[in-house]
Structure formats: C-alpha cells, structure tokens
Specification:
Blueprint lengths: L1 E2 L3 H6 L15 E3 L5 E3 L3 H11 L2 E6 L5 E4 L14 H22 L6 H14 L1 H5 L2 H7 L6 H6 L3 E2 L2 E2 L1 H14 L8
Antiparallel strand pairs: 1-2, 2-3, 4-5, 6-7
Helix pairs in contact: 2-4, 3-4, 4-8
C-alpha cells in the first residue's frame, strides 16, 4: 500500500511548505511487514541514470573503482559484463541500500525532491561521506536552504575538480529545491 503525495499531486493539491517552516511530507511505501520506507521517485532515478550513464562492461570510474551498469560497484571485477535488464535490477537494488542510509541518518522531514536529491548525492559519494558531512549536520539542524551549497562543495575526485561532478551537484541542488535539473 502506498500513501503520501507525489511531486505533482503535492503541488496541485496545495500541499507544500508548512507555516512553521517545516518540509513537505515524505512519500512512503509500506512493506508487507508494515514498515514504512521512503522510496526514490522516477525523477530521482532519472537523475542518477543521467549522470551515471549505463555501461554493460566493467570499467574503472574516476575514483579508480571497478563499476558496471548505473554506478554499481559491489563485487565488480575486470572483464564483467551485464545486460541492460541486469543494470536496471542492480540500480533498483542499490537504491534500497542508499535510501536506507538517508532514512537512518537524516533526522528532519524531507519532501520527495529533497529525498531524491540526497539519495542521488549519497549514491555517488557513499554513506560515509554523508555521515561525516557538514551537509548532514546543517540539514539535521533544519537549515534546509544550505543543502544545495553543501552539495556543490563535493565536486572533486582524486583532488581534482571535475566538470561532470560540478554539473551533477548543480542538478542535485536544483532537484533539492524542486526545480528542473535536466538542462544542467
């Protein structure tokens, strides 16, 4: 059973920023066990796919890690190959893990766009970076407007600023704000 509001429904229905400055409602998926889990929307998945790209043959990413599909790194070795269907499956499985990190580490309410942007950021940078980040500290203090700036700071790999990471961080920041990121 799913309840909550999608991105378009929340705007069309007049739901948005609360009078007390709080955030939108989360979009919940209720599992068979009754546990509530926030899930990444198609918009968040599209952002990840756009910036990760899909490689069906294993390659070393800019961080020198064996990668395949849409940024999948677990148990990948040189010479591995997968189908597009397998890449989709791995992405959806990987997202469950990163959604869990965001859900456990963030102590304030997030709207769907904010959740999606933070999952995309964490998918790229890893949960350790989220856990130790100033971004998370400021967010958990309720300083939502600081998050896009904090996201943008994470634009380096191997000590070098990468244009692709600058674009990705800008897109994540725009999605965080509920704005169109596709032209970045």
């Amino acid at each position: 059973m799913v309840y909550g509001f999608t991105r378009s429904e929340s705007r069309a229905s007049g739901f948005g920023q609360r009078d007390d400055g709080g955030a939108y409602r989360r979009f919940w998926l209720v599992s068979g066990s009754g546990e509530k889990r926030v899930r990444t929307s198609q918009e968040g998945i599209d952002l990840i796919k756009h910036f990760e790209g899909c490689e069906t043959k294993a390659y070393k990413c800019s961080a020198n890690v064996w990668t395949i599909g849409y940024g999948h790194t677990r148990d990948v070795a040189e010479g591995d190959e997968i189908t597009l269907d397998k890449a989709e499956y791995l992405l959806l499985e990987d997202l469950k893990e990163f959604e869990g990190y965001v859900d456990r580490l963030v102590e304030v309410s997030l709207n769907q766009d904010q959740f999606d942007a933070l999952v995309a950021w964490t998918f790229n940078l890893g949960p350790t970076n989220l856990k130790k980040s100033t971004l998370l500290n400021k967010l958990n203090l309720g300083i939502y407007e600081e998050v896009p700036f904090q996201m943008a700071r994470w634009n380096r790999s191997g000590g070098e600023v990468l244009e692709g990471l600058k674009r990705r961080r800008k897109a994540e920041g725009l999605l965080w704000q509920g704005l169109d990121w596709k032209d970045v």
